[in-house]
Design brief:
Structural class: alpha/beta
Shape: globular
Number of strands: 9
Number of helices: 7
Strand content: 15-25%
CATH architecture: 3-Layer(aba) Sandwich
Strand order of the largest sheet: 3-2-1-4-5-6-9
Distance between the termini: 11 Å
Largest sheet: 7 strands, parallel
Oligomer: single chain
Helix content: 40-55%
């Protein structure tokens, strides 16, 4: 499988495609960006965010950065033009932003970005969502995730991939005690068996990148936690 993936990578590179990343400053976004740079799949990578990011490593020097005001995204439509592939790792939490702030970021910003990307010629969109996402859920978090999944699907991208990871195994810079306990527990479990409830954040990023190279039968696909973990291992042994 690793050899097949290497062949797919080489073929993909020859197409000189470009991509953008939303949420490159977040935990998944940072690892995703690093994996994209290491595998050198795209001729151009653009980061779209609310602030300029600084990088010390020379590997990041050719990145293009577009600083936007997410409250006025229509004024920044140009930032979303000319990309072949879009990756969205944008998100916050209700605890951090409040209920209204959470909906604004995880639904409004994400959906509007997808709309502008589609209008700008993007044909392939990859969305980091959440395990249990359901537009009919009684839980706000899962309901919002499910709603934005469905509304982006309705935009009609040529290729649309939804990733629903469980508990992300990562040492956040932010202090979230309840998440820390969960990560320690699921980290111990994953050391002895594959868990359907958790996944290392590196596997999520690798799965998003590796899946970009594949050609699924359906335009829309949903990768649940186990599928993410499995696909995320393909490049893990390089």
């Amino acid at each position: 499988m690793a050899e097949d993936m290497k062949t797919l990578e080489e073929n993909f590179k020859q197409q000189n495609k470009s991509c953008f990343i939303l949420g490159a400053s977040g935990e998944t976004g940072k690892v995703l960006l690093q994996d994209l740079l290491e595998r050198n799949l795209f001729s151009k990578i653009t980061l779209i965010g609310r602030r300029q990011l600084t990088f010390e490593d020379k590997a990041y020097e050719n990145l293009v950065q577009e600083v936007v005001d997410f409250e006025k995204l229509d004024e920044y439509a140009a930032a979303f033009q000319g990309h072949d592939v879009g990756y969205c790792c944008l998100g916050t939490t209700r605890a951090k932003a409040g209920a209204d702030g959470f909906v604004r970021v995880d639904h409004d910003y994400v959906l509007k970005s997808a709309e502008l990307a589609k209008a700008g010629g993007c044909t392939q969109f990859h969305l980091e969502s959440s395990r249990g996402a359901d537009k009919k859920s009684s839980f706000l978090y899962l309901k919002v995730k499910g709603q934005v999944e469905a509304e982006i699907e309705a935009l009609g991208f040529d290729r649309y991939a939804i990733y629903r990871p469980g508990v992300l195994l990562v040492d956040r810079q932010e202090s979230r005690p309840s998440e820390w306990v969960a990560r320690k527990f699921f980290g111990a479990v994953s050391a002895v068996c594959t868990s359907s409830l958790s996944v290392p954040i590196q596997a999520v990023a690798r799965a998003m990148v590796s899946n970009t190279l594949l050609q699924p039968e359906q335009k829309t696909e949903i990768l649940e936690n186990k599928a993410i973990a499995s696909l995320g291992k393909v490049q893990g042994n390089k």
